Amino acid sequence: MAIWGKKPEEGNSDFLAPRPAEEGTQTKSHSLAEVAVDAGSIDVTPSTASINVVAEEPRLAPVQDAEVAELRRSNYSRRDSLRGEIFDQPEPAAMLTADRLLDVSARNRPAPESGFRRFVYFLTLKTVNLGDSLKVRERKALDARIGASLSGGAKFVPVLTRKGGVGKTTVSTLLGMALALSREDRVIAIDANPDRGTLAERVSKSTRFTVRDVVNRAAAIDGFTDFSTMVSRDVTRLDVLASDSDPMLSEAFDEGDYNVVADMAARYYSIVLTDCGTGIVHSVMRPTLQRATGLVIVSGGSVDEARLASETLTWLEANGYGDLVRNSVVALNTATQATQLVKLDEIEQHFKTRVRHVVRIPYDPALAAGSVIKFKDLKKGTREAARELAALVVDGLNNPV
């Protein structure tokens, strides 16, 4: 091997000569003069061809319990809990749901309401519970829909049509009674007919106050006790606020007056029904529709009554209330004249293309008399129609289009 660290002395030709090999060994040497080395061709990077790469195994946190073979999870779900999954954090309160905690077995079901099922329940000392019949379960389901809780403030539901004499006030009364019977909050029906409405005459009248009195005394009304003296309460717990009884003052009830009454009602009631007059372009109609979160259109069973009800929907759509129309319910009153000569199925089919649902109100002598309505004395079909209408209205309030 050549010694490069020592400067060659002048005249010393043996400086680059290789050392002699030891005896018994073979050496192979090359002179630098014989081999040309290109510095640019030398790869000075280290070679990794001979390095074995070993993948690093992920380090797992030590398991707290030696008997647990899987990692704990923190993303809770009801299904995982049922499978016995183990979590690394305490269960949140949201996991304490009613379907998880309540025992709905036959042993803990409510006693059947009546009939043979109730007899068996008590005969067996409450050990055999067959539950309610299908009819009772359907009724309870309808009660639950009507009594569903409503988010937000008061919900305003106008009941209107462009034609008089089709049973608008009757439908308003039936709807209010069905709502008040099944709900735990307060329901009021306001007679906003500027032409001497008759809504207060469909319930047992207990006061002479009207909407005009509410407007005049608004500043002095300090609570529900004061307001309740101005309404008539039916046995169903429906409150009714009458319109002006003096026809000379009826035209004075305008947009501003309605807003005063509506603001007052919104303080104490969850659902405010407004029995509107036939004048759809009257000034009261504007605030009524602006506040509306639901809508009921009343149609009679004759050709002209159905056409005018449909034109009411067209007017509403043309004036920016298309969403309200699509979420509305049509109450088809089949007790009007010429109903027997008209194909009610065709009328119903027409409205189903424009609104969310249609409910038929059957003929009932107690309604045709035009006097005070006693809900319990109505025919079963009439009561069921009113309850179905109430359920559909509440459905729309909770799930607007």
UniProtKB/TrEMBL annotation:
GO CC annotations on file: cytoplasmic side of plasma membrane; cytosol
Gene Ontology MF annotations: ATP binding; ATP hydrolysis activity
Gene3D superfamilies given in the database record: P-loop containing nucleotide triphosphate hydrolases
GO biological process, one term: negative regulation of cell division
Region feature Disordered, mapped onto this chain: 1-29
Basic and acidic residues bias (residue ranges): 1-10
Top-level division of the source organism's lineage: Bacteria
Stored InterPro entries: CobQ/CobB/MinD/ParA_Nub-bd_dom (IPR002586), P-loop_NTPase (IPR027417), ParA/MinD_ATPase (IPR050625)
SUPFAM superfamilies: P-loop containing nucleoside triphosphate hydrolases
Pfam family, one: CbiA
Residue ranges constituting the CobQ/CobB/MinD/ParA nucleotide binding domain according to the UniProt record: 161-288
Protein name: ATPases involved in chromosome partitioning
